[in-house]
Automatic annotation (TrEMBL):
Protein name: dolichyl-P-Man:Man5GlcNAc2-PP-dolichol alpha-1,3-mannosyltransferase
UniProt cross-references to InterPro entries, sorted A to Z: Glycosyltransferase_ALG3
EC number annotated for this UniProt entry: 2.4.1.258
TM spans (from-to): 147-163, 175-192, 213-234, 254-273, 280-300, 340-358, 378-398, 405-430, 450-469
Pathway membership: Protein modification; protein glycosylation
Keyword flag Repeat: no
Membrane topology category: Multi-pass membrane protein
Catalytic activity: an alpha-D-Man-(1->2)-alpha-D-Man-(1->2)-alpha-D-Man-(1->3)-[alpha-D-Man-(1->6)]-beta-D-Man-(1->4)-beta-D-GlcNAc-(1->4)-alpha-D-GlcNAc-diphospho-di-trans,poly-cis-dolichol + a di-trans,poly-cis-dolichyl beta-D-mannosyl phosphate = an alpha-D-Man-(1->2)-alpha-D-Man-(1->2)-alpha-D-Man-(1->3)-[alpha-D-Man-(1->3)-alpha-D-Man-(1->6)]-beta-D-Man-(1->4)-beta-D-GlcNAc-(1->4)-alpha-D-GlcNAc-diphospho-di-trans,poly-cis-dolichol + a di-trans,poly-cis-dolichyl phosphate + H(+)
Keyword Oxidoreductase part of the UniProt annotation: no
Entry keyword set: Endoplasmic reticulum, Glycosyltransferase, Membrane, Transferase, Transmembrane, Transmembrane helix
Source organism phylogeny: Eukaryota, Metazoa, Spiralia, Lophotrochozoa, Mollusca
Subcellular compartments: Endoplasmic reticulum membrane
A Pfam family this chain is assigned to: ALG3
Length: 481
């Protein structure tokens, strides 16, 4: 994309919605709320109003139109900030409508798919603040809002900032992420080579059948794939009984994005089982130290600001982006009681699996406050099944899933499904239903319901997984036959 066009589109991204709304607001009327703005966007898809938005954008780029101050001056900051969320949706429409005018050197991503801006520019703006000497997390912001990721994210994307010429060489960034994707598959395949649970044909679905995964990994430049790469490296190291290095990799994953913490309950169980109480304290220290060391520059300036921004568990999500909760009204989605209910269900489900299922994987272990280390290594199923189950439970009860969150569990679904007693046809069908849900944009009541239904079937099947049957009972049953 040429420099002038990019500048114009960036300008439109910030200002299209107020202009569009101004055209529908008469003097003396109350200005629309953010919810009304969202409705205008959705109606524009069907009523053709997006063409008007494109015309306004073109006018702005040539300087023949301006933003009416009546809109921006009379609204509070929260209203304007919410409108910018809708702007992003219009921006995607405008960029798509003009894509035929772009040459191959002007923004075409790898795999011949047009690049669409989502978070990359915001990432670059956030780390640019650090490059310019700002270490107060409360002051680091981008177009999509404040910086909400831990310090590891800052270091990695600062490196990408310089490698991609301050974020302008997007194609180079996509090639870097393509290499990251291949590396991730190599690590994941090595995990499954060790566990020998998944049949060879399932690898085809894992690496070739998901357009959404390819898009997230290669085209959109999200930080989620980087965090998951560290996680999968950690799992591979756990399988090799290299727990110190594995815990270090796990911590680095958390430092990029804290979704990796969904695996933490199962990791704690594994550490206690394999190493006992005393050594577990050492491994937890290994997990904690990188978080502190990486965050030192920010902790020295504003420690509380860093903690509440990078590990903000109460951050509110926008309803327009949710994949899993479109089936409930927006007011319920935003209700704190509903979110606390989901958290409680998450905790209860983890406790049930721990008490009734995970313990059965370790027949010779007595769970108590002071535990002794095992004299032998753990099997692959004793390691992978609790880790992937804990993460899957977190996904089932998440208060919101955005499209890039699909990578949080996509490559674990195949192991989870083939750990159940479901027929292979049903397993493949469930993979297809989940893929359909994540590829429906914007999400609908049907797509969200389909996702929850698929999750419920998988979770129920996991509960009855034959891997949880104690070995001695299997032997007794075989003798009876």
């Amino acid at each position: 994309m040429s420099g002038s066009a990019q500048k114009g589109l960036t300008y439109v991204y910030v200002n299209v919605t107020p202009v569009l709304l101004y055209g529908s607001v008469q003097e003396g009327q109350q200005y629309p709320t953010a919810n009304m703005a969202n409705n205008i966007f959705y109606s524009s898809v069907h009523d053709g109003l997006s063409n008007f938005a494109v015309n306004v954008a073109n006018a702005l780029m040539v300087g023949s139109a301006s933003i009416p101050s009546e809109i921006t001056d009379k609204q509070d900051d929260e209203f304007i900030e919410e409108l910018h969320i809708v702007d992003e949706l219009y921006f995607a429409q405008i960029e798509s409508s003009q894509s035929e005018n772009l040459s191959d050197d002007d923004g075409v991503g790898v795999c011949y798919v047009k690049y669409t801006e989502i978070d990359w520019t915001a990432y670059m703006q956030e780390v640019e603040g650090v490059v310019n000497g700002t270490y107060d997390y409360l002051k680091l912001k981008g177009d999509t809002g404040p910086l909400v990721y831990p310090a590891g994210f800052v270091y990695i994307y600062t490196a990408l900032y310089y490698i991609t010429d301050h974020g302008t060489n997007i194609k180079l960034g996509q090639y870097i992420f393509a290499v990251l994707y291949i590396l991730s598959l190599v690590v994941i395949f090595d995990i499954y080579r060790r566990c020998k649970t998944i049949p060879p044909y399932a690898y085809i679905f894992m690496c070739c059948a998901s357009y959404r995964i390819h898009s997230i990994y290669i085209l959109r430049l999200f930080n989620d794939p980087i965090a998951m790469l560290f996680l999968y490296i950690a799992v591979d190291l756990f399988l090799q009984d290299k727990w110190s290095t594995g815990c270090l990799m796990f911590s680095l994953g958390v430092s990029v994005k804290m979704n990796v913490l969904l695996f933490a309950p199962a990791l704690l169980v594994l550490l206690l089982v394999r190493h006992g109480t005393m050594a577990t304290a050492k491994y937890l220290t290994i997990c904690a130290l990188p978080q502190i060391i990486l965050a030192i520059p920010f902790l020295l300036v504003n420690p509380w600001g860093y903690i509440i921004q990078s590990f903000n568990l109460g951050r509110q999500f926008f309803y327009i982006w949710t994949v899993n909760w479109r089936l409930v009204p927006e007011d319920l989605f935003l209700d704190k009681k509903f979110q606390l209910l989901l958290l409680a269900c998450h905790a209860v489900c983890l406790l049930l699996f721990f008490h009734f299922k995970w313990k059965r994987l370790y027949q010779c272990v007595r769970f108590r406050v002071w535990m002794k280390p095992l004299p032998h290594t753990l099997t692959s199923s004793q390691i992978i099944l609790p880790l992937f189950t804990a993460n899957f439970i977190g996904m089932c009860f998440s208060r919101s899933l955005h499209y890039q969150f699909y990578v949080w569990y996509f490559h674990t679904l195949h192991y989870i499904l083939w750990s159940t007693a479901l027929p292979s046809v049903v397993r493949i069908l469930l993979l297809g239903c989940i893929e359909l849900s994540w590829n429906t944009y914007p999400s609908t009541v049907f797509s969200s319901s389909l996702l929850h239904g698929s999750h419920f079937i998988i979770l129920t099947s996991l509960w009855w997984s034959p891997l949880y049957t104690p070995q001695k009972k299997v032997m007794v049953a075989s003798k009876m036959h």
